[in-house]
Structures are given as C-alpha cells and as structure tokens.
Amino acid sequence: MRRARPGAPPRGTGGRALTSVGAGVGFDERRSTDRGDDRTTGSEPTTVREERTPSRLWHVTLSVSGGAIPLKEVRRGLEQLAHDHPFLLTSRYANDHAEIRYWEEARDLHDAAAVALRLWGEHRSTAKLPPWEIVGLEVIDRETYHQRIAEGYGPPPAAPVGVHPY
C-alpha cells in the first residue's frame, strides 16, 4: 500500500506541477477584530478577505550548454519542445548550446523563475533534448523588456517565432 496524499502521483514520476498559492489566513498575524476578547463563547464566523496578486507577464531567456550534439538532433528536440509548449517564442541553437525565449504568466518573479528552471529538465526525455545544463536565466517584467527594446539595449529583438540556428 502506497502512502501519499490523495491524488498525488507516485514518487519519481515527474508529475509535479508548480502552482501559486496564497499565503493563507494568519500569514501576517492579522486577525478579524469582530471576534472580541471572549473566545470561550464558541466559534463565530470570521470574514477573511484574501488579497490576490494578479499575475503578470515575464519575459524569460533560458540558456543551456553542454557537449557537442549533431545540429539535426538539437533542432529536432527544440522543435518538439516548441510543439509540446506553444508558448515558446523562439529558440536559437548551435551544436553545444541553445537559448530559449518565451513569455511566462506568473504571480511574481520567483514563480516565473521556478517554472523556467524546471523547463529543460522536465522535458528532456519527452522532447529528447540534449543532456545539457542550464547556464543562464534572465527573467524580466514586461515593462522592463519593452523599455530595453525602446532604448535600443538589452536582449536583441527575438528572431521570428520558431527554431533557428545562431
């Protein structure tokens, strides 16, 4: 018999999903003042107003590198990744490194970065990606991305959508 949370995937299956969750009641120790000082009179309903942080768009650039792989295999893997995940904007590649750019919707930078850092490893086997390691990550908000482009510095404008050699 397996011990786990109901609905939880078996260990080591990689079926984990990153989700954003609120901090919950009492996170900052604020409590409703409607309860009064007498706590022995039973439980009175308290009104908890959860503040939700709206999600934002983040521009992600993920760089990976490793041993030389035939260009055909690198391209095929990146094309499969783009097919499996159409949110990918563009990929550039060479036989020993690649760069992936896309927009991620997330609550904050931490969530966007966590998803980006898991992307390559979680899809390595399904998309048959090279066994490279992540060597760089840039996550910037939408306003910063557009400001950099308008000022003529920052990441060069992405090549047309798709998978392209350097």
Concise synopsis of the structure shown:
The protein is an alpha+beta fold and 166 residues long. It has three helices and five strands.
Outline the secondary-structure elements:
Layout: E1 56-65, H1 71-84, E2 88-93, E3 97-106, H2 109-123, E4 133-141, H3 142-151, E5 162-165
Parallel strand pairs: 2-5
Antiparallel strand pairs: 1-3, 1-4, 2-3
Morphology: globular
% residues in beta strands = 15-25%
Mean pLDDT rating: 76
Structural class: alpha+beta
For the largest beta sheet, what order do the strands appear in spatially? 4-1-3-2-5
| Helix content bin | 10-25%
- Series of H and E elements: EHEEHEHE
Uncertain segments: 1-40
Separate helix tally: 3
The major β-sheet equals: 5 strands, mixed
Q: How many beta-strand runs? A: 5
Radius of gyration: 22 Å
Explain what the structure shows.
- The protein is of the alpha+beta class.
- It has helices at 71-84, 109-123, 142-151, and strands at 56-65, 88-93, 97-106, 133-141, 162-165.
- It has a five-stranded mixed β-sheet with strand order 4-1-3-2-5.
- The longest helix has 15 residues, at 109-123.
- It is globular, with a radius of gyration of 22 Å.
- Residues 1-40 have low confidence and may be disordered.
